[in-house]
Amino acid sequence: MKTGLFFLLGLVVLAFAVVQLFALKRERAATRNFPPTGQIIDVNGVDVHAVQMGAGPDLVLIHGASGNTRDFTFAFADSVADRYRVTILDRPGLGWTEQMSDIHKAAWSTAHADPRAQARLLKQATDQLGVVQPIVLGHSFGGVVALAWALEFDDLAGVVSVAGVANPWPGDLGWTYTVNGSAWGGALVVPVLSAFVPQSYVDGAVASIFAPQVAPEGYVDHVGPALILRRGSMRANARQVNWLRPHVVEMSAQYGSINVPVEVVHGDADTIVPLSVHSAKLPGQIEGANVTVLQGVGHMPQHTHPEEVIAAIDRVAARAGLR
């Protein structure tokens, strides 16, 4: 009886070791194939990855969940670098920015998901880069970080939210975030996904994010899904999304104190961050907030309708007296 139990335990340990080995192999490939494209900035002991290009008034770009700087360097940043100095940042735990473990010691503290804490970290990085009075643009999860930036600081020109999270949502976000964001899921499930998720799953996930539009040719190859499939990034992403709602509840009650121009671009076919739940409410919360609704457009306007997003940036620049 004991021999059989020990044998079974040995098989479990062996299987777990094999999973970790395959995950490590994939992570090493991701590191080789998708290295940092910008500079690494030390912010109080936390490495922050930033890409900077162009010239003109400062424009900061903040990506969403499961993303990194490559989402914006695919095409969008080049389209605005002729008239703005563009600074693109990896959020904590994603891309090549470290998690804020030295700031929030408790591994399971909901502070990991705090948009205000993320905004403070990224602001310190942009200060080191000489960014002055920026327009802060955030996509999806990055949208609520951009709003947090405006709540935390007054030396910015304005905010552009693109399909951005802004208000509390009903219900939960599904089993994936719940499981991967838990202690046991992060330890047991995440390594399996990291090691064995097939390309077909990645392609399907990208297609669902862009729906009803389609991803531009070459997008998946450029953005580097392998980076988010690293074990640490998957855990960080799941925890941040899973624990975000309480912070949004607290922040949304204070939006009335935002006194910089706010422009919003949001598609009415967005099923990831629904317009009616998030952006549609902002004009009643922030004085002067302007929402541009894109008919039949999904969650990725910066790629499918970049001209509308650029127009929103230009409106903020004009309202702030930068142009």
Protein described:
The protein has 323 residues and is an alpha/beta fold. Helices cover 45% and strands 14% of the residues. Strands 1-2-4-3-5-6-7-8 form an 8-stranded mixed sheet, with helices on both faces. α5 (141-152) links the parallel β5 (135-139) and β6 (158-162). α1 crosses α7 and α4 (115-128) packs across α5.
Helix and strand layout, with pairings?
Blueprint: H1 2-33, E1 39-43, E2 46-54, E3 58-62, H2 70-73, H3 76-80, E4 85-89, H4 115-128, E5 135-139, H5 141-152, E6 158-162, H6 175-180, H7 183-196, H8 199-210, H9 219-223, H10 225-228, H11 231-242, H12 245-252, E7 262-267, E8 290-294, H13 301-304, H14 306-319
Parallel strand pairs: 3-4, 3-5, 5-6, 6-7, 7-8
Antiparallel strand pairs: 1-2, 2-4
Strand percentage? 5-15%
Unreliable residue runs: 102-108
Tell me the structural class.
alpha/beta
C-alpha geometry: globular
User: What is the number of beta strands?
Assistant: 8
Short description:
This protein has about 325 residues and is an alpha/beta fold. Helix content is about 45%, strand content about 15%. Helix 4 crosses helix 5.
Name a few traits of the molecule:
single chain, 323 residues, eight-stranded mixed sheet, alpha/beta, 14 helices
